[in-house]
Amino acid sequence: MRELRRYRELLYVIASRDIKVRYKQSIMGFLWAILMPVLIVMAGVVVRYAYSLAAHTPLKTSDIAGVAVRSLPWTFLVSSIRFGCNSLILSNKELVTKIYFPREIFPLSAVLSSLFDFAIASGALVIVLAATGTPWSRYLAWVPVLFMTVVAWAIGVSLVVSAASLFFRDVKYIVEVLLTFGIFFTPVFYDVRMFGDKAKWLLLNPVAPLLEGLSDCITRQQPPNLYWFGYSLGWAVVTLLGGYAFFKHLEPAFAESI
Amino acid sequence: MSDVALRMEHVYKKFRKGEMFNSLRDLIPALTGRMFRQQELSENDKREFWALQDISFEVKRGEALGIIGHNGAGKSTILKILSRIMKPTKGSMAVNGRLSSLIEVAAGFHQDLTGRENIFLNGTILGMTKREIESKLDQIVAFSGLEEFIDTPVKRYSSGMYARLGFSVAAHVDPEVLIVDEVLSVGDYLFQQKCMDRMKEVTRAGVAVLFVSHNLRSVAEFCTRCLLLERGRLAMTGSSNDVISRYMSSNRVVSEQDDSKPVVVSKVCVRNRHGESVRFESGERAWIDVEVTARRPCTKMAIVLYFKDDSYYEVFNTSTERLGYGNFSLEPGDTFVCTFELRMNFASGAFRPLVAVYRYDTQTLLDRWESSACIYVGSASDVRGAVNCFPEVVRHEVVRATVGSSH
User: Do B209 and B104 share a structural domain?
Assistant: First the structure.
């Protein structure tokens, strides 16, 4: 029990170190947390505007709100995986070879510090949504459930890529490429509905039903598609458990291989 | 409840030598290539070696055990296995109680954080709770002597300040088992002394300490028992003095039989009044016989005798010339024989005699001889340092402060 409490405290301390360092280094301070989502939303607006010109339909506020709602969890996911990927080989290399404690603390703290950015950005988003008159609905109760699934998925993937990048130096480049282009295969700028009956192919991406679900609950006041949510939840659970097992299996070899 | 704090039983550790595939870019072609050429796999298996073989020892509470050995003998591997950073390939180990390691004390520091923030960060990494750190913060800062700079980012610290802060945090962890690896080499003399005192204090408080250092003086000072490692095997276990003298005798540089030298030191013998010996009581009389043989004519030579301590610091030197016996000349085949008589006025420790033949007027070294074994000096009275000044307390009394007013 004492061990557990100790390591939980350590997790917080390392996550808060990551956060402090990130904000100390940037002149913009806390604006940093909002910068990425704002850029993505602006890109989304451009893309959406192009759609509406091509389809001769007016650009609705709810569409833009949808892009904003989806871009936040996406940014969170990307930054968790990116920091997670480097958590063993860059930021904490010294600690991995010198001091013992459960190594999953590093990818977990990467997720936790990204969560902090996410919290700031979603604070800003809530203000924007309220100002643009997005109505409340009981389906908002789904938001934490959906988002927790995103977090589980982020932790699982971070565990896998952090361990893999320790053994194979090029994993981080591969991950970087996948994260950069992943946005085109994930409904952030667009709705899967736009693809009609081909939508199911896009929803096979485990992140897609979660982002769709979030946007359904928040901007459309309707429940998420339970069938697809179950599919994503399954993926998240499998990734989390599998990722943890994979990480723990490789953990004893970390110090020698780094 | 046993009083054994730490135990290793038949521990083996295997490492792989050479480059492994550390990128997918290399691995994938290699895997596809391997499907066609089967033998590559076995070749890969050969590139491994045993870093540790059959290591067993235990450390009791309140005991300090030293580990010495040459670079690559496996000292750090033992420590890494004990601190659970690595797993042994075979064998088992047990640690009873909270373990803290002073291996690279500043490992957890982050450059951009201030000294204070790093105390919290590193303290937590080393196993303290936040509350514990808060209660000891003043002590830690005072120990490091960095009060003025505690709110400065550590990237602006000098390397000495950096290490001092690291040690100060680590020294306040209150472990039950403490592992120390060569951390005392940082900081100035005063800080090193402070660290040694702190370590003695925790040992007295019942902490088991495992101490790894190349500084044999501090090993001898601090540890009662020592392990000597040689190429991953336990070469010797015993009292620190015995193990250190064995280690130092394995350290020798044999003067190579080189025909180009005009003269060679052909024999050196260190004896006490009973005969050849490596053990002396402090203050005991010793005789050192030296034989020098010439191959070519040589003139104006003198013999120099040195003693060096375990950190190769020269503690004594003299020469035939300086002792007033002038210089000598030899024809091919001639031998010069001389005997030094001296008193071993060293404090207890290990010392190594060296003999050199110089051409006195040009100060050129003709040959040198280093002892294959060191001389161990023991002292009946508890004197420390390099020399024994044979102290005695010839007067002692307590002068009471006069109570009350005088009339």
Answer: yes
